[in-house]
Amino acid sequence: MIKNWLKIAFINYRKNWLSTIINILGLSVGLCVFLLIFIHWQDEKSYEQWNPDRENIYLVENFNASFGTMPVSSYPEIFESKEMFSEIEDATIFNDWGKKKISFGNNSAYVSAGATVSSFFNFFPFEKVAGSFKNALSDVNKVALSEETAKLLFADDYLNSIGKTVKLEVDDKSYIVTAVYKKPLGKTVIKPDFVFMNPFMENSKTQWTSYSYYGFFKIKPGSDIKVLEEKISKKMQSEDEISAKKWGYEVDKKNPLKVYLSSLSAIKLDAKSEGIEKGDKKSMMILLGISALILILSGINLINLKTAQAAQRAKEVGVRKVIGSTQSKLIFQFLLETFIICFAAYILAFAMVELLLPSFNEFLDKDIKLNNIDIFVYTGLLLIAFSLVSGLIPALYLSNFKPINTLKGNFVRSRHGVWLRNSILTLQLIISSFFIICSLVINTQVKYMMNKDLGFKGDQVVQIDFKKTNWEKNYNSKKYQLLKNEIAKIQGVEDITGSISSIGRGSANRSVAKDARDSTKIVESTGLGAIDENYLRFYKIQFLSGRDLNWKIASDTINGAVVNETFAKKLGYNSQSVLGKEILTGWDDRKKYRVLGVVRDFYYSGVDQPIIPIVFFNYDRNWVKNNMSNIQIKLSGKDIEGTMERIKEFWLTKAEPGYPFDYQFVDKQFARTFEKFQKQQTLFTTLNIVVLIIALLGLFALSSLLIEQKLKDVAIKKTLGADEKTIVWDLTKRFLLICFIAVLISIPFGYYAMNEWLKDFSYRINMPVWPYILSMILLLILTFAVVSFKAYRATKINLVEHLKYE
């Protein structure tokens, strides 16, 4: 029986070769897209799964009305909470300090550094290679190394490195090696190449609202997390009130401080804040939904084509029923035929995934491998479920044919099943229209962001970050001046400036500022614009009023300030009335700053983020000078490559020998803020093309089958004198009507989805009307082009061949 079913299946595949190919290609493309997004999602979910205590470890996040929800905490919030609340079993902190140089003798390594405390290994149980974790970080003179780092420093003798001393660039001091560990093989956001005791903790132990550390709690099993969040929140609110009285700011009673605890197993996707290397869950879920829609679209093609082929199978079903076949056997037969098509598409889809995975990894900047057995299990179950769902509708439809009707030979003229095909075709076109609308709106928003006036000129400007060392000796500001003087001598360098914040990376530090004469006028979350004298001229930032800072005027270097227009507005003034006003700031509360000028707003961060209020002032003062860590160089346009080679030679031989030469062009650095949305644009455009191809292929195959069933009608009309235009219009108008209705239905869904997407942007387009109109016009044109092509060919039939049996 199975053998006969297979024979019948392959006879029908060969007979309807076009629709078979379209089904397999459509399904394989749909499955390929779904698989790529699915394995990306699985990869993101796999983070921290290596840690056996992941369900009991929580990242501490804080909501503050001025700064939003932050992934960082204060020192006392973490360690005093451990003593205050019995639910907390242990606590630790960790900060990724980026790449730092560590050396032993003539050997050195430039690797990622982690500043932490002694409890670190209780939370992150890396495999021990040598030494002991018990007292590995018990004081500020100890360091633990990863196995890779130990090998770089000690070569084959790395197992005997315990007790030896290494030097760290962070303070040029000697540290004793106490342990060597293996970094986990599993995915993790905590992956330092060496860890040491955080040197700044002593200064932070009483600062409850100084958010500087990634803090983690190990919670006792069975504890109520919500209750614990409320307890810590109340403590933080009371400490906030104490700080407000001390520093002279008002507590926001409507939006009090709030503490959130996010499980380590879920922080990659579900952290309340930006987390630690947090993935873009919202975009990922959108992509999963889109890929599911593409898969549904492929299934719709399959259902539609199978039901459209009903006329060809009607007599077969009638004969089978007459000779005793049951409806259940017919259903199983048709399900088997569907499963064969789905399985062939499944194999082809995995081949496509293997082919596209390297490019997909490069696009996402990931290293996803197709080696997770769960992927094959889940997708295998998906294949079975998909085959059942997409195969059951045509199977039930075909198996319900009545033998007496089908054997009369007039099934072709019957309207049975027309409503089903029309409904499914409408759904298919609704999805296609939805994608076109979304793609056009996304492209418009991204284009709007990329063409927006940024308020600065950053072309031919390169930024080089230098290594911060010896903060006790104010070396960072001195190093900046030394580098500035030397690089200015290099041929091809036009100008040099510096700042503690970087365009494209956002403001490095924020604080509270207020009017010196009216304490009710407060500007929270004010950016610290510590800059060199020529910074604003360097980037050609426009002044709205007043003047620039002038280092030749002593008062300018001591208490002069330039503010942006957002700061002036938030302080309650305009660009003219704010001039001459004195302000007090959280970073220098004993000294008054006098506003000398107001500049037009410009973007430090991406244009999707709101412009923050900023106060610009002399970088070479108080603790701020220690935050200087970059130099910004404007190059002559005549020989950029040659100039960069000369700067590189200076950097590697004189400025920072032994370190890699890392730099970024400022305009490209800022362009990275668009990267997320450009990728969304690229993905949506690509998926939109995939959707249209699948939909149009399905429409072509369906129209071909339906028009073939009307060839005798066409022959009769031609015999009676109908011209080709009339016949083509008669054959296509039903499809155009369905398309028109589908677009109308898709409009509210597209509007809702895009309105939700645009809410993420502080600066966004007004919802345009033209994408909805263009979607209708485009889909009508494509539908007419696809259907009319087949309809026109139908007008060229041989009349005798189709009328000889009438």
TrEMBL record:
GO terms for molecular function: transmembrane transporter activity. Residues 20-233, 428-649 form the MacB-like periplasmic core domain. It is a multi-pass membrane protein. GO terms for cellular component: plasma membrane. The chain crosses the membrane at residues 21-41, 284-305, 330-355, 375-398, 419-442, 683-707, 735-754, 769-789. Keywords: Cell membrane, Membrane, Transmembrane, Transmembrane helix. It is found in: Cell membrane. Its main location: membrane. It comes from the Bacteria. Pfam families: FtsX, MacB_PCD. Residues 290-402, 688-798 form the ABC3 transporter permease C-terminal domain. This is Putative ABC transport system permease protein. It comes from Chryseobacterium arachidis.
